[in-house]
Amino acid sequence: MNDRLPPAWSKHLKTRSGPQIPQSKIAQPKAASLSHVQADDALLRQALNLQQADRLAEAEALCQRVLARNPRHPLALYLLGTFALDLDDEMAIRCFERAVREAPQNPHYHLTLGETYLKVGEHSDAIRHFELACQLKADWVEALCALGRAYTEFGKADLAVPLYEKALKINGGHPLVRMGLANALVSLGRMEEAATYMKEAVSQRLGVAAAYNGLVSIRKFAEEPAELKSILTELKNPELDRKSIQQFHHAAGKILNDIRRYDEAMDHFRQAKELSARRFDIDSHRRSVDFLIELFSPRMLAAKAGHGSTSEVPVFVLGMPRSGTTLTEQVLASHPDVHGAGELTKLRRITNRLAPETRSPEELRRSILGMTVDQSKSLAEEYLIHIRQRSTGTRRIVDKLPHNFELIGLIRLLFPKARIIHCRRDAIDNCISCYFLSFNQDNIYNADLHTLGLYYSEYDRLMRHWDKVFPGQILQNRYEDMVSDQEGQSRRLIDHLGLPWDDACLRFFDKGGAVNTFSRWQVRQPIYTSSVSRWKNYGSAIQPLIDGLGDLAGN
């Protein structure tokens, strides 16, 4: 048995320093003697020093000593929350919530709690605490930008723009402001305005690498732009940090790929990938797929008949990233009875809670096998409340997190009547498109071409299992078919949702509202064919990918 949960069910454990808290922020609790206050202060100052030295276990022990004497000490609770971040975000939230209850007038606590809620996809809670932080500390640029980011990710970028504009007037030199405003404008499809702020960020040396990366991502180049020379010059700076180097290489690769200098583009993408901090453990991932296939067997699923909600509101659009999930969502969301909610992490948060103590496969197995009808209905209702925050009146709400393909078994337990749409694309094209992107550290299987091919093979193996145990319940939507027969495939999608046809679905690129995925520029354009069979441009450079894909190459 493998010793960790499947990738969609848990996070890789890693140490972190957490937010740095100025020692001047240490507040004295009211209900304590002066000597105890001084002792607590000394312990927490020591804990701060240990935190900054990445000695988190020792720092946590000191905080626990303070809490043993004063269980309501807000700073001790807050520090424990920072230590838990990335290791156990649910624990971090509980600590921050307790700190906020004890010190409700501390804007820093509200800001950090909001950021943690945003991290786990609880946008409404994040917005509430960011708003409180803004109220408690007027004209605080960091809080205004955090609130703007939350609104942008929540699909309400129109509310984010004035917040960033206010922050710009307060402190135009703050590194968060211009790129935050630009991202909100890109989400709204206001590309030219966004480009203006990105260029200003470059000229003022504010997050230059991120600005160039954003700038080149919102247009397609037909000939070499001046930005390429500037980016290549920036790469010669010996003082660049690793993240900036990666961003510059991705930006250069994007331009060179657009202008068909494919060998040079691949070289820049390769150099970006080589800077990844971690390597993907493909053997552990194979064991995770084995675990899911074994757990969600036909026998187990038959025993769970009658579980979950009868709601038909949720629609899950899933598949490999860059397989057409955003395009599919935009077509669906152009229908007046459908809301596109974007990439939601709520299911992942629910599943992580199924193994809260050990995060082990055995604990997960026990939770799934022991789940009662009432428990399944409660979890389903929690998810429905979450998605209804985004749209109260539509008949269907689309969750298009691609990696939900790992959670189809749980989806069916909670929502037997939910529609599931599996987006597929030519395997080599799909993988190359993934390779060109900068994934986060939880999804680094694209850090080298051979591993990417092996990962795709495991994805395919898992999807074949889901098709076997849920026959006829998962609609396959091929990207190449969407390109060659837009209307026919769009009608097929709407019919799968049980809705009448609406011609608005053919003009998905005119749809208003925000888009917050890697494809947010592309989905503002009519369907184009240039991404079909693009793999033929790269010759022998992609041989490791083809080797990893094996028989799936070209399928």
Kindly summarize this structure in a few lines:
The chain is mainly alpha-helical and 555 residues long.
CATH arch. level architecture of the domain at 282-552 = 3-Layer(aba) Sandwich
* Distance between the first and last residues' Cα: 32 Å
Poorly predicted regions are 1-32
Count of DSSP helices? 26
Walk across the major sheet and give the strand order: 2-3-1-4-5
Tell me, rounded to a whole number, the average pLDDT.
89
**For this structure, what is the CATH class of the domain at 282-552?**
Alpha Beta
Explain this structure to me?
- With 555 residues, the chain is mainly alpha-helical.
- It has a domain at 282-552: Rossmann fold (3-Layer(aba) Sandwich).
- Helix content is 55%, strand content 4%.
- It has helices at residues 34-52, 56-69, 74-84, 89-102, 107-119, 123-136, 141-153, 157-170, 177-187, 191-203, 208-217, 226-234, 242-258, 262-274, 282-295, 298-303, 325-333, 346-352, 361-369, 373-388, 408-414, 427-435, 449-469, 479-484, 486-496, 543-549; strands at 314-319, 338-340, 396-399, 419-424, 474-478.
- A 5-stranded parallel sheet has the order 2-3-1-4-5, with helices on both faces.
- Helix 6 packs antiparallel against helix 7.
- The longest helix has 21 residues, at 449-469.
- The radius of gyration is 24 Å and the shape is globular.
- The two termini are 32 Å apart.
- The relative contact order is 0.10.
- The model is unreliable at 1-32 (pLDDT under 50).
Keywords:
single chain; 555 residues; mainly alpha; Rossmann fold; 5-stranded parallel sheet; 26 helices; 5 strands; 4% strand; globular; disordered N terminus
